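Risk mitigation, structural track. In case the binding assays with 5-hydroxymethyl-3,4-dihydroxypiperidine fail to produce interpretable data, a predicted complex structure has been prepared as a fallback.
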Amino acid sequence: MSDTWLLSEDRVWPERVPWKESLFSVANGHLGTRGTFEEGYGDSVPATFMHGLFVTPPGDLPYLAPLPDWTTVSITVDGIRLRLDDRLPAGYERVLDFRTGLLTRRVLWQAPGTGVIRAEFRRLLSMADTGLAALEVNVTSLTDDVQIGIETGLDGSISGPYGSPWSGVDWKRPAQDRLTMRAESDDGATVTASSVVLGLGPLGVIHHARHPRLTATIDLAPGEWLSLTKYTGYRKGSGPEPDLPDDRFDQVLARSAAEWARRWETSQIEVPGDPFAEHALRFAAFHVIGGAPGSAEGAGVGARLLSGYGYRHHVFWDADIFCVPYLTMTQPDLARAHLGYRHRGLAGARRKAAQYGRAGAFCAWESAGTGDEVTPDWGETPSGERIRIRTGEIEEHIVADVAWAADHYVRWTGDRAFLDDEGAEMILDGARYWQDRVEIGREGRAHLRHVIGPDEYHVDVDDNFFTNAMAAWHLGIAAEHGAGRNDLAERLGLPDGWEEEFLDLAGRLQPLPGPEDVFEQHDGYFTLDHIDLSRFEPRLAPLHYILGEKVLERSQITKQADVVMGLVLLENLHGRALIGANLDYYGPRTDHGSSLSLAMHSIAASLAGRPEQAYDYFRRAAAIDLEDSMGNSAHGVHAATQGGLLQAALVGFAGLHLGLDGPEIRARLPEHWEALGFSFVHGGTRHEWEARAGKPARGDKAPRADHDGGG
Ligand code: IFM
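Fallback model:
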């Protein structure tokens, strides 16, 4: 691997194009654009998304709408369209630079009977002006006199897997080099887009009702080139046209790169001795930072960030448990923005609780623009069978997951204002839900019956370990954060004596370890069939594809980390000794049929003091997107995988945690790592630490001399 700051490729693999579009996507916390070829390609899925711009077709669920497309550029050479699916390039290179967010593609191309041209595309979404997209196209004639035709505009006819969102499209040409479009969906969502095309001289126009284009025809002699710069601004609603720069692409790039550099200051990651891991972690940070909304107005962190249509950009616990904790430690403003989204969603969570006749806030398993539940009721199995999806009704641990992210944020950042203004309310109202939800058995224990835990292969189970453990923790923490907040307790309608009751319920709900310190994943799990997973290796598909839902349900095969994850998140409560025992038991029973699982196992193995096993999980987690090992990265980069990998490095290998006097590390590095360098923010101060190989002892940290020394 040459430069770990770069994602690069040097050939076009037709069947890999949609997957690579996800990997090469760029995002700036507001907009995200898939890495599609400007000239189009076969089954390519072009899309630019804006956080929060959900559209709900009649009778359907909300999805993040693709904006009128800015990326398409048709190039003809002597009248023949440049398309790499019509004719393979003679030379090709694509590079995404994580440092700057710049995506570059260079193509050598020749159609029959034309000269050879070199086309170079550079694009970015500005980190400095987050409504702005910038594209530069240079075309050079290398061998012959050629005539180049260019068409580029705004495509309001764009459609994706959920159809074409914009039923109303109006456009105008306020200046000869500019197009402005206003697009409106059936449910009233609107966006205004404006493009300017510079550098081509006088432009013509194609008056297409939904896809107007500016055009130019330019003759090039050998060695001559043309260069166009296109800026596109997007604004939600139908307000005034967005302002557009008139300076050079490199100036826009420099301003954006400076903002990326600011982000990287606190997300530095270096793994001397392992360029693969260093690259995977930089890739992860690039996508998580760019894909997380910069403001609470927008939305939460979607399950596929801003890189594809997967899960319609709905927000799951993937955000709270996998991405937000990493952001809390490195980009606290982004973590705060997501938590603001969760707080705004409280009204929807209360509506959901009320719908089930319960008190408090029952967070949506999947949410979109508001906190209301938007999980589909029906889905399809791989064999095409229609099945009920019950996660929206009974995958209730989401309530505690949101509280966990909020509590972790408060402890790590010390942001009391968040706790006072929003956090305590979120945590208390979620705990109120549990208080109302639990059932007390005759034996005096509290139960959560009819739930789905993280292991979604077992639906409608009683006393799922993760759910009970997290709910118990949540009730306890609510008593801590709510203490003395009488006004809030009154406003939320908490009954007198609520603190004692919460603590009492927490004690009764707390799962107890079974034989040899192994927790039973849910009531009756130990009696299920044990199936030896190694029989199915090497395996290219998750087991529910191979065995079917029914067999899985009767077996101990678990979809993803469940008990193991509970023990990782609640490490302070249970102690790390239990993690090893449960990892040994559940590891061989886990299918990793979800993108969330492997990175969490990596953290667990690190906490259990097993760096080589942790590395094996880490490597497999990194392959999910970088090698498309689950076969579904075409729908977008997996947020939970990427956030999980970053935590696997910081929390797992480096062992970063809060000690009594602040952050500490307890490094356990794989043998072949010389060191792990990383930066983070604690209490508003940036730190840069290095965990070194061969010194796994507590306190193995070395703030570098040229930084704050705050380690
Ligand atoms: O949140 C996850 C869930 O745990 C497993 N199925 C996919 C969801 C979205 O990534």
